[in-house]
TrEMBL record:
It comes from Candidatus Marinarcus aquaticus. Belongs to the class I-like SAM-binding methyltransferase superfamily. RNA M5U methyltransferase family. This is tRNA (Uridine(54)-C5)-methyltransferase TrmA. The active site is at C330 (nucleophile), C330. GO terms for molecular function: rRNA binding; tRNA (uracil(54)-C5)-methyltransferase activity, S-adenosyl methionine-dependent; tRNA binding.
Length: 372
């Protein structure tokens, strides 16, 4: 990757490696970590080596002249946690990279837009839909809104203003995305502030990897479903799907994404994994389940994509009751801990590494296990 800030910007921690070298470094590390669970070769899902990230956040840095007039620039932390002024970024989508100087020039020329501006967030899609969130350390008023509407129109973007206890949406607070997965189109709306996979190319390959390696029969149970990123494509392969998620925003997005794809075999429930375990074991009754009869489901597969903390004790025990377990992990350390328990009853059939965050130490994993 040809980035002029490589080695200075603290975002890319593996700056002294080529793309293939940094990937091989992570592969060897994870082979050592998981050698007790599988001796098979990993399936390796590579990222593009540049312009792969569909979202970004930059601080706004201000330099003042002798008349106290500010000149704005974007900034990231360097390796000493100090501000590094930048004017481009090689890991973000080309659309974002091209917009960055145009946006900054427009803000620089508007007293209302630059006044106490603290940070800028970008969210983009493969359909060239662009959402920009401007974050302030002041209350936003009608004058700001007027200036922001002019900005939105002139750059053909969607603009949101945020300040303490304020969120001003000028047109829409989401972008539209179309993913082609195994040659089939799927449609999504990604909400500002909601969770989205940051590397669209790898995300598509992750979903395809699951679809191409799992056994699909009867019904699917999914925990930590988010906005339906995996749920919706996988639903095409199962009779019925029951998916849980604790975030109200994500559940709302998941239901909307079902509508966009004309899918009607998924029930989404807003509850934590721990609550769902209690519901399945009839420990507690939940009003959220009053229209759902859990006994009508015939689950053959459970799909989990937990946060970095991995599975809690009850959920770790629950997944072992299923014939097939699909585990997507954003933290290899907690995955290894969970596999210590799960592999007592299940065998690892397939294992993949997903390089979502190229040039960093981070890598994600996918494991498909079958009951022994």
């Amino acid at each position: 990757m040809n980035c002029k800030y490589f080695g200075e910007c603290g975002s890319c921690t593996l700056h002294n490696f080529s793309y293939e070298e940094q990937l091989n470094h992570k592969i060897q590390r994870e082979k050592e970590r998981f050698k007790a669970f599988t001796t098979s070769d990993f399936d390796i899902i590579k990222s593009n080596d540049s312009h792969f990230r569909n979202r970004a956040e930059f601080r706004i840095w201000k330099n003042f002249d002798e008349h106290n007039n500010p000149t704005l620039s974007y900034a990231m932390n360097d390796f000493n946690k100090k501000a590094l002024e930048i004017d481009s970024c090689e890991i973000i989508y080309n659309d974002i990279d091209l917009l960055m100087p145009q946006l900054l020039d427009a803000i620089q020329n508007s007293d209302e837009l630059k006044n106490r501006l603290f940070a800028v967030e970008f969210l983009s899609s493969t359909t060239q839909d662009m959402l920009v969130t401007l974050i302030y350390h002041r209350k936003l008023d009608e004058a700001w809104e007027l200036a922001a509407r002019l900005l939105e129109k002139s750059l053909a973007i969607k603009v949101i203003g945020r300040a303490r206890k304020q969120k001003i949406v000028l047109s829409q607070d989401y972008i539209q995305e179309e993913l082609t997965i195994n040659k089939d189109p799927f449609y999504f709306e990604y909400k500002e502030g909601g969770f989205t996979q940051p590397n669209t190319g790898v995300n598509i390959q992750m979903i395809e990897w699951v679809l191409n390696h799992m056994d699909a029969k009867e019904d699917l149970c999914e925990l930590y479903c988010g906005g339906g990123n995996f749920t919706i494509p996988l639903s095409k392969k199962f009779n019925k799907v029951l998916a849980t998620e604790i975030s109200k925003t994500s559940i709302k997005s998941a239901k909307r994404n079902c509508e966009l794809n004309n899918i009607n075999n998924i029930d989404f429930i807003r509850m934590s994994a721990e609550e769902f375990v209690d519901a399945l074991n009839e420990v507690r009754e939940f009003n959220r389940l009053k229209e759902i009869n859990l006994k009508e489901y015939h689950f053959s597969t459970i799909f989990v994509d937990p946060p970095r903390a991995g599975l809690d004790d009850l959920t770790r025990k629950l997944v072992c009751d299923y014939e097939q377990i699909i585990y997507i992990s954003c933290n290899p350390e907690t995955l290894a801990r969970d596999l210590e328990h799960i592999t007592q009853s299940h065998t690892v059939e397939h294992f993949a590494l997903f390089d979502q965050f190229a040039y960093t130490q981070h890598i994600e994993c996918g494991v498909i296990l079958k009951l022994k």
